[in-house]
Fold:
Amino acid sequence: MKIRFSRICMYVFLSFAAFFSLAPLVWTLISATNANADILRGTLLPGTHLISNFIRLNELSNLGMAFWNSARNAILSTFLSVLICSLAGYGFEIFHSKAKDRFMGILLLSMMIPFAAIMIPLFQLAANLNILNTTLGFMLPTLSTAFLIMLFRQSSRSFPREMIEAARIEGLNEVSIFFRIYVPTMKSTYAAAITITFMASWNVFLWPRIIMISPDSITMPLLISNLMAGYVADFGVIMLAVLIATLPTVIIFFFLQRHFAEGVLGAVK
Amino acid sequence: MFVAAGLIVWMNFYPMVRGFYFSLYRGVGAQMEFAGALNYLRMLEDTQFRQTIGTTFFYLLIQVPIMLITGLALASMLNSPGLKAKGFFRTAIFLPCAVGLVAYSLVFRQMFAVSGIINTIAMNLGIMETPFNWFGSTWSARMIIILGLLWRWTGFNMIFYLAGLQNIDRSIFEAARIDGANVFQQFRKITIPLLRPIILLTAIMSTNGTLQLFDESFNLTGGGPGLTSRTMSHHIYSTAFEALIPQIGYASAMSFVIFIMVAVLAFIQIKVGDRR
Structure:
């Protein structure tokens, strides 16, 4: 009886949490298909205005351009930063020494530096390097993060050293050991790293807000933020823009969800 | 490896030092002149900045504990054996993490707009007579930011706890149950002590994130009404980039103060987390 009761409480609590989590998303989905007037009336049913909202969104903003900018920036910076950080994490763990461990400790301190504290000097740096409005400028500050290095370093702890030894005896050089043996073995860590990095760089707002000055280089988060600020009082159009901006990360999320938990677990252990 | 380390030094530590250097100056561009501690003295009398500090800490103190406790509770529920639809609940609660900060800020802004869905539903149900202007008062605006933060991040923390819980041998809970420990006792005596490192990690991450809050303040409430829901980062941004006369020196000084706060808080948390 007692167990039964607590079980029911659990389901109620979990259902409430799930409802709270899903309701805003469902509402976004519904609103994207409705005309402004219907949304204001408080409709909770899907409507038929998806296509007209889409057309209107394209009139109001340069959607294709922003989507392309976001995709290019996010994919390039995810690829490069996962590559750089995994190499570094591998190096720090496999060839580790006292000095390197201490150095890693210092690098970890950088995680405590708030972005607000460095954004002004970073902006000036980017301006001096002439990389405002470019992908390089977009990704430079986050190409290498202590968080990702640590993720790979911690996960490498469980990587069997004998495999490296065996490969060396086989005559493989260090570079191909990394790419042919390490990378395939650490799949779930890579999945977690890719998920985290892609989501972060797809959604980053403050940094592009500062350096993407030209209207041709804006990214999706800037586009939807501008739509809102631009007194476009058409909820349907804005919600559709939100939906389009959210879709890629949700897709990645569904593909890599399972690996995400495993990858993070491997690092926390 | 050295490339990565070099990039971190170049992109994090170097700007930090530069920022501190700027904070000692005032003026614009080429006319920067040395001001010593003047910017820091000015901060002491700046009620706006003090208000944004207060607001940010308000978010921190209300939101982080609620979120971590809820996340823990959800995780231990999802970890209990024999629960049905586990995958559904986990995915549903974790899903908000896939939504961008700006995107969800705008969704919440629409939902709580004067003619938004929340007011409409409340009026249809007869809870309210006239639409309530959620962003018109300080407290409701702040509450919406907190609600948004809870929505976005609870699932994220839950996943960390869940990963940790799955490492704990189930027989420990089994034994406790046989010994007559109820759910809450199990939670307090087993779950929390064994997850301590992960709780510490999430606490530091959340504190850090909340102190740097920007997107929500900028997009969800616009910092309003007035400046009452504005966060520190938002204030620095607007001082440095939105003001008619950009005050780089003063903004840098404020940034440096945030850095000190984050560092001190993280240090305290690590000390407290280690001691027990």
